[in-house]
Specification:
- Helix content is 40%, strand content 17%.
- Strands 16-15-14-13-12-11-18-17 form an 8-stranded parallel β-sheet. Strands 2, 3, 4, 5, 6, 9 and 10 form a 7-stranded antiparallel β-sheet that branches.
- α1 packs antiparallel against α2 (31-43), α6 (187-195) runs antiparallel to α8 (218-225) and α9 (276-288) packs across α10.
- The protein is α/β, with parallel strands linked by helices.
């Protein structure tokens, strides 16, 4: 038991180092979490040791039919790497593997044999009833089905699927070694593996996995020994999001999303851009001022707005969407659709949209999650309690700790998306400024973005890394602070809120006035780069 307590202390220290490497503040994990884990270990005498590790031979494992938690690594550097990953995930789901979590997606420099294309790497966590060797056989069949053949060791391959962890077992047979024998020297394996773990030390399986690392600080320590978060963003390894035919590194600079409302009743610019010509003119203006993303909304989500049907929304959206996708100015830009309807999302992507922005996080039309998973586009899931007609009622504005509760509720929406088949590398989080929040709570959220990431990291470190989108533009709380009744007069206040948000970790800002906020983003990014060098 003393050994277990010592290991937990070192894992805590390593996890702090993982966050301090660039993601969050040094106090990301409290001593209370550690004491809770130590007390749990102390009380567990006479029960199963959470650090118990089983060593098995092939014979002993052959008949194990209970669900086992597993981690599988994915790699590809030949052909359409993203489509290959998507196909591999589908085949795994159809082969007795239930995928429960995804790591982020990484583009990495090749190792060992360096004269070859760059790799995409990730990992998934799941459960299976397959024994380890049956699982290995199934993964080899999937590799063959996708087109992998015998080739140069460590050389190019369309897909590589490796069992990193299998239950609490250490396996050593002629055909299978678990944990993977070279895991300690491979940052492209360790970083997605660490994404699948939480920092809270409450998960018994994760404790066993850390003990399998043969390192006192667990996998966190192994990752930190290779450079940890400080090497993410270098040429060796980049965290990316697939959008269309590109891999987006959202850490390089803040992305600006320009708002294009086609509604007659939006709080700021309702009725201005309902006609196709006016909408096209506004889209061109937003792009000329520096927008990276155009976000088209055909349904108002202001408080107490009347809800349109999916067909009504499409009647507004389709003529403008068809016209915008044809203008040359859209080349190299992303096109987002602000909708909570599965039907609208499917039709929009069919017509050229590249991202879905759902203010409800899948709660107003649960079908949207599986539809977006099939569409294979990025999905913005936002925090909101209730719907636009109820989100500002007294019950939905009650918080004991707004950042902690927003993180918990937003994480629940992220998990629902993942379990519906949307991988983590396609998820963007929006804490929902102006939705189910008072003015002071909006300020708390903007100032507390890092604490929201930290809280998510307790459950999933990968979730704490996904892009955060923030939309404070012209919102009522800015008018209350600055005594500006007309929303259009809140653009200067919006630029101030955007600056604070970026300095606290926002990666995408959604705004009406692109020109002001592109400048605010540039200054904020320059300041962040300066601080990183200090």
């Amino acid at each position: 038991m003393l050994c277990a307590k010592d290991t937990l202390r070192k894992m805590y220290s390593a996890a702090k180092g993982y966050y301090c490497g660039g993601l969050a503040a040094p106090n990301a994990f409290s001593a209370l979490d550690l004491r809770h884990s130590l007390n749990s270990s102390r009380k567990s005498q006479g029960h199963a040791n959470p650090f118990r590790v089983r060593s098995y031979t092939k014979c002993a494992l052959a008949g194990d039919s209970a669900d086992q938690e597993i981690v599988i690594a994915l790699g590809s550097n030949v052909g359409d790497r993203i489509s290959t990953f998507d196909r591999a995930l589908r085949l795994m789901r159809n082969s007795g593997i239930k995928i429960t979590r995804h790591a982020c997606l990484y583009e990495t420099a090749p190792a060992y044999v360096t004269d070859q294309p760059r790799f995409l790497n990730s990992a998934v966590r799941g459960t299976t009833k397959l024994g380890p060797h049956d699982l290995l056989k199934k993964l080899k069949e999937i590799e063959k089905d996708i087109g992998r053949t015998a080739g140069i060791r460590y050389g190019p391959r369309p897909i590589d699927l490796d069992i990193l962890l299998y239950g609490d077992s250490r396996i050593g047979t002629e055909t299978l070694t678990v944990p993977h024998e070279r895991i300690h020297e491979r940052p492209f394996v360790l970083v997605p593996l660490v994404d699948l773990l939480g920092s809270s030390a409450d998960d018994c399986m994760e404790k066993s996995w850390h003990s399998l690392s043969k390192c006192n600080g667990g996998f966190f320590d192994l990752w930190n020994n290779l450079g940890g978060e400080s090497i993410v963003g270098t040429e060796g390894i980049k965290r990316v999001m697939p959008v269309g035919n590109t891999l987006l590194d959202w850490r390089e600079r803040t992305l600006v999303m320009g708002v294009l409302n086609l509604t007659p009743d939006s709080f700021s610019d309702g009725g201005k851009f309902q006609e196709v010509e006016a909408a096209i003119s506004q889209a061109k203006l937003l792009i000329s001022e520096g927008a990276d993303i155009i976000d088209i909304g055909a349904q108002s989500t202001r408080p107490f707005a009347r809800r349109l049907s999916a067909n009504e929304e499409l009647e507004r959206l389709v003529p403008v969407l068809d016209a915008i996708t044809k203008i040359p100015e859209m080349e190299g830009k992303l096109l987002s659709i602000d909708t909570f309807y599965a039907q609208v999302a499917a039709e929009a992507v069919k017509r050229g949209a590249t991202m879905i922005n759902d203010v409800s996080g899948g709660q107003l039309d649960p079908n949207i999650l599986e539809v977006v998973a099939e569409l294979g586009v990025p999905y913005v899931t936002m925090h909101m309690r209730g719907d636009p007609s109820t989100m500002q009622n007294g019950q939905n504005l009650q918080y004991d700790d707004v950042c902690k509760e927003v993180a918990s509720e937003l994480y629940a929406r992220l998990r629902a998306a993942e379990l519906s088949g949307i991988p983590l590398w396609r998820i963007v989080l929006d804490p929902g400024i102006g939705f189910s929040k008072k003015s002071t709570q909006n300020i708390e959220v903007i100032a507390g973005l890092e604490s929201i990431r930290e809280e998510m990291g307790r459950m999933s470190l990968g979730a704490s890394h996904v892009p955060i989108l923030l939309g404070p533009s012209r919102k009522r709380f800015l008018g209350e602070i600055c005594n500006r009744v007309d929303p259009v007069e809140r653009d200067a206040a919006t630029a101030s809120a955007v600056t604070i948000a970026i300095l606290n970790g926002a990666n995408i800002v959604r705004v009406h006035n692109v020109r002001y906020n592109v400048d605010a983003a540039k200054v904020s990014d320059a300041y962040r780069k300066y601080r990183r060098k200090q």
